[in-house]
Specification:
heterodimer, A: 421 residues, 2 domains, globular, B: 100 residues, alpha/beta, Rossmann fold, four-stranded parallel beta sheet, 5 helices
């Protein structure tokens, strides 16, 4: 076990944390965060328009296109928003004018979405254009950086307001970006969007497969075992795909088609991380009933957060980090929950995520909303807590025994000190 | 008045700690401004801070944050203090870093 932990600290964690701090991936993560309010609010229209009560659905039927309009204008343009958001964040990290970078990557993205007759095709504004949005943002911001570095910019005298100055600085980069994207898309008639989607097909396929999602879940758990925010470290890559999945599912749901993806956003955050990564809501509950004073206190302290999927008190307080006993269920439980949820969804025993629910939504309620009110998902979520408790229990008891022993020793030490006095 | 800024991935779990630090500061009637923010916003939110503290789960970004604020004390919070939400201990650490 010690060997394994050394390996974890020396070989697995450093390259992954590098991934978590890589400039472009950080910009992707932060840029995608900008799109979340639009997806979440769009989702509200989607789920309230589809509450499975016949009277409600009949009542709404004539207005459905009106509701869909709100969905199309939020969830339906997610890639455009991502291009703008990522362009902004990447420019900011290079200390370039962020607004100019956002606008420029928006332009670059739109060019990639032109049809062969040169009209804007909004189909790619939804899920299908997300990778293109990322590439457009990175390419256009890098062009800007290149120009600024070589001083290929039009500079105005010092007295000009910065906002005006920035817009002139952006002229040459905008020209070059526009020319480049235009050349490729229009005269060369190369479909950038299709090409980029094609390149990323293996990654998309892998993360929607059972082995793929298990490996992803494993890496997240191991990172947390090393004390590193696992979900956040992988977000730059994984969220791109999970968000794309949930948007595609939303759009299919709105059109009453079969849902294409299982591991859409919410699969991990709501079905696997019950009460936080590692399904640690379980530990909060077990600690509440513990005879150990430390655990009882930590249980009371961590339960409110755990109900909303926040579990840092447990991760660092229990602690789970570098704790060989509790690391076992912390890694195993998510594997079991991910595998069984995947299987249940693949045979349609429970519905797949169709809406974006904030990851802080409590268990049972979160899955219920994310699946567009599938009561079976709520029941499964409750069952998951039971499964997690059963697996955690023996390991928890072992850890508790050690903590009780330590507490007893400390008490005796205190007593001994008092007697000496 | 001194300003202490804490950051973690989303600024959520640190905001729980902030509440406890505020309680600890109130107890000793120490006047200060404490706030939590996502690490992505630390560049803006930490500008006028006297000390910046990172949650242990984002400790791997310590060097990066130190590079943003070369003349400010920037440190990571002890994992156990963070987990047990020991507001008073973290408060003490912050004061120490500010040289009080």
């Amino acid at each position: 076990m010690q060997k394994f932990m050394d390996w974890l600290e020396e070989h697995l964690l450093p390259p992954l944390t590098k991934l978590g701090t890589q400039r472009h991936l950080v910009a992707v993560r932060n840029g995608l965060a900008v799109t979340l309010p639009a997806i979440i609010v769009g989702s509200i229209f989607l789920i309230f328009g589809n509450i499975p009560i016949e009277a409600w659905l009949n009542f709404l039927a004539p207005y459905q296109p009106m509701l869909d309009a709100a969905v199309n204008a939020s969830i339906g343009i997610i890639s455009l928003l991502a291009a703008v958001g990522i362009g902004y964040e990447l420019s900011k990290s290079y200390e370039l004018a962020p607004a100019s970078g956002a606008v420029l990557s928006g332009i670059a993205f739109i060019i990639t979405q032109l049809s062969n007759d040169y009209v804007i095709n909004v189909d790619g504004f939804g899920a299908g254009g997300l990778f293109t949005a990322i590439i457009s943002a990175i390419v256009s911001v890098e062009i800007t950086r290149f120009c600024v570095k070589r001083n290929w910019v039009i500079k105005l005298p010092g007295g000009v307001p910065p906002a005006v100055g920035d817009s002139f600085v952006a002229l040459v980069p905008t020209f070059l970006t526009l020319i480049l994207f235009w050349l490729v898309r229009v005269p060369l008639n190369f479909d950038i969007n299709v090409f980029i989607q094609h390149i990323f097909t293996p990654l998309v396929f892998a993360l929607n497969s059972l082995p793929g999602i298990l490996i992803y879940t494993l890496i997240v758990s191991l990172l947390w075992c090393g004390g590193i925010h696992g979900d956040m470290t992988l977000e730059g890559v994984a969220d791109t795909i999970f968000i794309q999945f949930v948007v595609a599912n939303s759009q299919a749901f709105a059109n009453h088609q079969a849902l294409p993806y299982i591991t859409a956003s919410g699969f991990s955050s709501l079905f696997v991380n019950v009460g936080g990564t590692g399904a640690t809501l379980t530990l909060a509950i077990l600690m509440l009933f513990s005879r150990s004073k430390t655990y009882k206190e930590l249980g009371k302290l961590s339960l409110p957060g755990a109900l909303f999927e926040i579990n840092e008190p447990i991760i660092f307080g229990f602690p789970i980090v570098m704790n060989p006993i509790i690391m076992i269920p912390f890694v195993v439980v998510p594997q079991i929950l991910a595998a069984s949820t995947y299987l249940l969804m693949s045979v349609n025993l429970i519905a797949r995520p169709v809406t974006m629910v904030p990851w802080t939504m409590p268990p049972i309620l979160g899955p219920l909303m994310a699946t567009g009110w599938d009561w079976r998902a709520a029941v499964w979520s409750a069952l998951e807590i039971v499964i997690a408790v059963v697996i955690y229990y023996p390991f928890f008891k072992m850890a508790e025994k050690m903590t009780l022993k330590k507490e007893l020793e400390e008490e005796q030490l205190e007593l001994g000190k008092k007697e000496l006095n | 008045m001194k300003k202490i800024v804490l950051c973690c991935s989303d600024g959520m779990s640190t905001s729980m700690l902030v509440q406890r630090m505020k309680a600890a500061a109130d107890k000793e009637t120490y006047l200060c401004d404490i706030l939590a923010c996502p690490i992505a916003q630390i560049g803006d939110k930490g500008k006028d801070a006297d000390v910046v503290l990172l949650g242990p789960q984002v400790k791997y970004q310590l060097k990066k944050v130190q590079a943003i604020f070369p003349d400010k004390p920037v440190a990571a919070i002890e994992p156990v203090d963070y987990g047990m939400m020991r507001g008073n201990k973290v408060m003490m650490k912050a004061k120490e870093l500010m040289g009080e």
